Amino acid sequence: MRRHNLSVALRSIHQEGGASRARLTGVLGLNRSTVGDLVGGLVDAGLVVESRLDPVLTGRAGRPSLVVRPLEEAASVLAVHLDVHWLRVARVGLGGRVLDRRTEQLPVPLTPDHAVARTAALAGQLLEVPQQRDAVVGVGVAVPGTVRTGAGVVGLAPNLGWSEVDLGTRVSEVVTALTDRPVPVAVANDADLGVLAEHLRGAARGVADVVYLCGTWGLGGGILTGGHPLTGSHGYGGEVGHIGVDPEGRPCHCGSRGCWEAEALAAAWAHPLGLDPDGVDLAAQVLDRLERGGVAARRTRDRASRSFARGLASVVNLVDPQLVLLGAGLWRELWPSLAGDVAPWLGRLLLPALRDHVQVRLAGLGQDSTLLGAAELAFEALLDDPLAARPAAAATG
Predict the structure, then answer these.
(1) CA triplet 225, 210, 231: central angle to 5 degrees?
(2) What is the rounded end-to-end Cα distance, in angstroms, of the chain?
(3) Where would a tag sit more exposed on the chain, N or C end, judged by fewer CB atoms within 10 A?
(4) Whole-number pLDDT of residue 137
(5) Is the separation of the CB atoms in 168 and 141 below 8 Å?
(6) Which residues of the chain have pLDDT under 50?
(7) Which residues pair with 90 in a beta bridge?
(8) What's the pLDDT at 65?
(9) Is the separation of the CB atoms in 325 and 312 below 8 Å?
(10) What are the structural domains of the chain?
């Protein structure tokens, strides 16, 4: 029971960036002395610190409140977001703040060996001093593909050209070499992690039914229904990019034809407009061509907008979300200019009962949704059992 209560307390402090003792008393449903004992245990473990709020700042008279805050430098994780053309690695402290980060543009095609080597190099830059290495309690890796539940194996990442890659084991080996000790490594789909972060810290906070879409070269989908992730029995659920929107359409990297991502993302825009589909500034190039006008621009705009609406309507009709969020990727950049093109098609394709209820918004965490979701995945072992999984520095100090 104490382990459970410590977990609930630390999770609340982590997710809120700090919590008063009164707030923890309400969350835990325990008396103040028991909550004080739990907080004391977390303080002794080197995970949190208590301080009193200045009544001048709070505007409240009387004795200042005790607030429990996470010691973000004492417990941290490595968050890795591996995309088709980009690698992002961040050191994230307890409480969810990014302490430091590195970003690197990647060549195409990217092999698993190269991805792991570059991850190790960037992680090494973030863990240059012993205190930083000792504070690491986990690693979370986000990839644009299907990931076998609990195994860290990337089953299929079509846009990377990967199949059956044991990424978790490979990353674990290089992190162990960096830290001189085993560190838990977890791997998950990028969109599943994006919706997790948005639900905890972003635009979907407090929303139980959410669809999160991301990607430029592929289209990932993370889905929450009733507050629970929709992942399927093997972890492969939510692959919305491979919904068929045109059976006679463009070939897709998955081997099919006319998939949503093939008809609405990079190649669908770049090829008819004469652009480089691998260009890192593809969204800016597309918007520039649309602004200049012409027959090709108008036809491409109409076709891609219609295809995007077809896929979006299929997802909304299936899961009835309160909110659709556009995360990092092509359509996040295009949406402000093309929402008016998509809306009429949605009006025709959505079930009448859903037309006035679904909201489409830009993700609240911007480019960092997936990265912060990977951090939350990495923190899970510590939040689940704070004393057993406390940092090496606290355990030995």
Answers:
(1) 50
(2) 26
(3) N
(4) 97
(5) yes
(6) 54-59
(7) 79, 101
(8) 67
(9) no
(10) 2-70 (1.10.10.10), 76-192+370-396 (3.30.420.40), 205-364 (3.30.420.40)
Query: What was the pLDDT predicted at 62?
Result: 52
Residue with tokens 């805050």: 69
Predicted pLDDT at 394: 73
Residues 53, 50: Cα–Cα separation, whole Å = 10
